[in-house]
Design goal:
By secondary structure, this protein is an alpha/beta fold. It has 2 domains: about 120 residues, 3-Layer(aba) Sandwich (Rossmann fold), CATH 3.40.50; about 100 residues, Arc Repressor Mutant, subunit A, CATH 1.10.10. The strands form 3 sheets. It has a 5-stranded parallel sheet, with helices on both faces. Strands 6-7-8-9 form a 4-stranded antiparallel sheet, covered by helices on one side. A 3-stranded antiparallel sheet has the order 10-12-11. A hairpin with a 5-residue loop joins strand 7 and strand 8. The longest helix has 14 residues. The protein starts with a strand and ends in a 5-residue tail after the last strand. The model has no long low-confidence stretch (mean pLDDT about 85).
Amino acid sequence: MNILIVDDDPELLDQLSTSLKRKLYRIETAADGEEALNKIFEVSYDLVLLDIMLPRRNGLSVLKEIRQAGMNIPVLMLTARSDVEDRVKGLDYGADDYLSKPFSMAELLARIRAILRRDGKRDPVLSAGTIKLDTISREVTQNGNPLDLTAKEFSILEFLLYNKGSAVSRFNMAEHLWGNDFDPFSMSNFIDVHIKNLRKKIHSHKDIEIIRTIRGIGFIIDDSL
């Protein structure tokens, strides 16, 4: 899989390139919007990781031009902005997903896998059984009824849905929720507490637990739901 990473932070570019190459992705980089467009129109990519705040030409302008050119390359927007309006604008321009900085590598890899599985279908709503989670409005419903989740519970459910069909370890979940602030010695049971509270709010689907525990590994939402 060919991935183009577009960001003007050389340290982040190097970090992302190194981490994704370890996962056997073929990586190219661009440091500004003009360079990104030149590469996109010359090389076939399977995915573009595109920052919004770029020199010479911002990410939204780059995205708009490639979509107007009829190119359906999956695009994951990377940005420090977390405003809902910015996310909506990016998706309206044709982005496949949105990830706010700072983010963990575990979450980025989950988003990449999810996008590459979609085969170009752009849908901000993730689902499992009777559960629907809107990544833009951040609303979660079950059977059409809203669920009142805490920020951590929402993040856990979203992360599991992005990894639907794959087991998520407690460590990766903790990295996703707390980043470098996670202390495995003093916070080791935090994940289990949040999972327990989340399960109380989510009803089983056809007598099957939506969030299933994989002993010795972590948690999974099955692809069959």
